[in-house]
Design brief:
The chain is mainly α and about 325 residues long. Helices cover about 75% and strands about 0% of the residues. The protein has 13 helices and no strands. The longest helix is centred in the first third of the chain and has 37 residues. The protein is globular, with a radius of gyration of 25 Å.
Amino acid sequence: MWVIAGHTFTQLSRMKVFYFLIIFAVLMIGVNFFELPSNSAGANSAEEHLKMVKNMSFGAMEVFSLLFGISATALLIPKDIEDRTLYTILSKPVPRIDYLFGKLLGVLLIILTATLVMDALLCLVVYTRANGIGFLGIQGMIPTEMEIYKKGLIDSSRGLLTEAEFQNDLAAKQSQLDALGVTSSMQLGILAIYLKTVVISSVALLLSTFSTSTLFTIIVTFVVWGIGMFQHEAKDAYVVMTQFGDSWWLKSMTAMIAVIFPDLHVYSITDSATQAKAGGLPLRDISKMLLISPMYTAMYTILSWFVFRKKEF
């Protein structure tokens, strides 16, 4: 599996489409280094500004990961058949499930490499913007109060701040500034994007084992992604708009759909991860994401093997 994964990693790293997508994603993230009108449009505070920066960067990362994960996985088996590499591999004592796992692992390794590069760039962008946020009034307020304090204008008898209140105020502002920067919640949001790509790539692998068209595999995988993204909202809308409510049969049907189609609502922690505020993400949501991701990946890959093992080459 590792040999096949290494070959797949090398094969994909030489694809021109990979360079195009990674450059596009890096540019989308890197543009946030600069104070452009589009970067701060509608932002009335430092919190809103940092949230917009993170939202744009997270969006670029997710689009890149999904596009490359789906297209790369959909192309793997057809390309190996075209190059006759598949016949060479399967003529050896290589189990077909090892071949599939190796191919998927190679895709996930190259996406992980690109995600780490984008993560490092995003951390640099957020750190730079958070520490240079004075133009939005966070750091600019601290020197003003410090200057007032040095001039002896802080006097509790005149209704101004005491020294202890002033220090607490500075500590609160510094804590707020730290919460705007690189946090563990932001890293968990990036992990959620990667795990979502892992699951969707395994779906593309399953479809590619019986599909005769790469375009069909890509289109159907995006359809599955759409179902996974909105099935939770569809259920809520159905409960509200019908008289049946949240009955047992609706729960059973929802569970069955969530087994067939991945419930991507569990990766919605990315919305909370972009919030420019202190506080971690709910442990329950994180645990659910970490448990469901390998379950979906293993299930779709094993189903791929059941289909692939009966094919004649």
